[in-house]
């Protein structure tokens, strides 16, 4: 097999995370622009936060920061040309089902469109992203076999793989989302997406 | 008096804060480029953190985040053309004396040069920034009357004014540094400096 000439960037994201939302919505356009190979790494932040001694997102635990994040998200959505920001009525939402489906599709051509649709369900339509009928409707709209994928997402194999992936995040030092890796080099936050891509190109 | 035609940006910073260091080093060049009026607002993060229930900087309290910040600072210093990053041997350093001097000089032409010299003492030379001889040497190098300024910095008036300024930061919702304000609009972090300046220009 020929080796892949494109530098690789790991993209660790969580469907409940509002700053992951910003990166998910814009990352495939950046991939096209910058010519990197993207490795989609869905994981769960809940076990990571609990492992760090936090009972919840810092945006919930720290009221001042949580209030600020609403203003920041409104401005960032405007900056990136996304739908006007609305504070979700539930935060952070349970995201285990879409994370399992994303793990199934991580190297499939539909991973980007699926992930954007789940993020819009959460942060634009303000709806439950963990409901099988909602996730199924997204898959069907992408002309995918929703029932078969949902059944596979509930298999012990995929459940175990998502736990392993979250453990891998912890082992690599992840403490928030989104997080990007280029080899061992870690970049935290949507604000570092461009830096991570540039680093990948420079060190390829 | 003629009104000032330039939009105003408040710059809340702390000499012990490494991300404040990045902003202090580059902000006067940005002021020139973007045409805003800068209001220097030195304050102390310690009382703010304690008021939020934190005993220390989150970079000390959260080991994973603290380790990451070292990598991030190394990359950011390179990006901005600053001296190579060295992890300070004491973090966060006591900063009450330089903060009082900065409050004295907040609307003086030497505030930028003084603030950069204190930041370099902390984050490049890795030395005590709270020692009167060190702060005095910086003032002397700027052709300022060091003894008179240090005496004034220790006056009850300036001590009280720094406490008031830190209380003002808290009242405005500040939870970290650097923080920028354009009117009531708050921007947190060195990564938002450009956004704050642009917002000031757009809303002037």
From TrEMBL, chains A, B:
- GO MF, one example: glutathione transferase activity
The enzyme's E.C. designation: 5.99.1.4
Q: Where in this chain does the record put each DSBA-like thioredoxin domain?
A: 9-195
Signal peptide per UniProt = none
Q: Does the keyword Membrane feature in the UniProt annotation?
A: no
Q: Which key words tag this protein in UniProt?
A: Isomerase
What's its catalytic activity? 2-hydroxychromene-2-carboxylate = (3E)-4-(2-hydroxyphenyl)-2-oxobut-3-enoate
Annotated catalytic residues: 17
Q: Enumerate the CDD domains for this protein.
A: DsbA_HCCA_Iso (cd03022)
Q: Name one GO biological process term.
A: glutathione metabolic process
The reply on keyword Glycoprotein is: no
InterPro entries from the UniProt entry: DSBA-like_thioredoxin_dom (IPR001853), GST_Kappa/NadH (IPR051924), HCCAis_GSTk (IPR014440), NahD-like (IPR044087), Thioredoxin-like_sf (IPR036249)
Describe the family membership recorded for this protein in Swiss-Prot or TrEMBL: Belongs to the GST superfamily. NadH family.
Q: What is this protein called?
A: 2-hydroxychromene-2-carboxylate isomerase
**What organism, scientifically named, is this protein from?**
Enhydrobacter aerosaccus
């Amino acid at each position: 097999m020929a080796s892949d000439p494109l530098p690789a960037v790991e993209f660790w994201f969580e469907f409940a995370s509002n700053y992951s939302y910003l990166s998910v919505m814009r990352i495939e356009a950046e991939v096209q622009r910058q010519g990197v190979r993207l490795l989609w790494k869905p994981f769960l932040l809940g076990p990571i936060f609990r492992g760090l001694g936090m009972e919840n997102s810092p945006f919930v635990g720290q009221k001042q920061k949580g209030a600020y994040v609403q203003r920041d998200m409104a401005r960032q959505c405007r900056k990136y040309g996304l739908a006007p920001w609305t504070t979700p009525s539930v935060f952070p939402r349970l995201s285990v089902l879409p994370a399992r489906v994303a793990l199934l599709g991580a190297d499939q051509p539909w991973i980007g469109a699926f992930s954007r649709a789940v993020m819009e369900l959460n942060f634009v339509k303000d709806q439950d992203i963990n409901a099988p009928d909602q996730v199924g409707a997204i898959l069907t709209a992408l002309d995918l076999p929703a029932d078969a994928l949902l059944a596979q997402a509930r298999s012990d194999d995929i459940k175990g793989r998502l736990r392993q992936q979250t453990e891998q995040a912890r082992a690599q030092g992840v403490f928030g989302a989104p997080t990007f890796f280029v080899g061992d080099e870690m970049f935290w936050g949507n604000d570092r997406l461009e830096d991570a891509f540039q680093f990948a190109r420079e060190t390829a």
